[in-house]
Amino acid sequence: MSHGWSGNPYDVYNDPDGPYYNPYYYGPPARPAPGSAVAALVCSSVATFACCNVLALPAVITSAMAVSRSARDPRGARALTVWSWALFGGAMAVAVVYVTLMVAFGV
């Protein structure tokens, strides 16, 4: 029987052959948070609720789906994140054109 890293024969917690040894005592390392998906969710939510931009609602839905799928299906979550950023950009472009036209025509 080895004596673990400490060299103490009574240290059964650090002994790889001991009954209480668990290399994952603190659990496996956590997966990184899907930063781009969370950012897309925050930006599209602010655009939808603060700016009353209803066209950004599909971006909210797709980014929420991307956040929920990030642990199970990273490739699908990445694709949904790209779609949510594209939908957000399109909604903001339409909003900018709308505001520009409203200012240009003095409405």
Automatic annotation (TrEMBL):
Name of the protein in its database record: CBS-domain-containing membrane protein
Record carries keyword Transmembrane: yes
Gene source species: Actinomadura namibiensis
Residues spanning the membrane: 37-61, 82-105
Assigned keywords, A-Z: Membrane, Transmembrane, Transmembrane helix
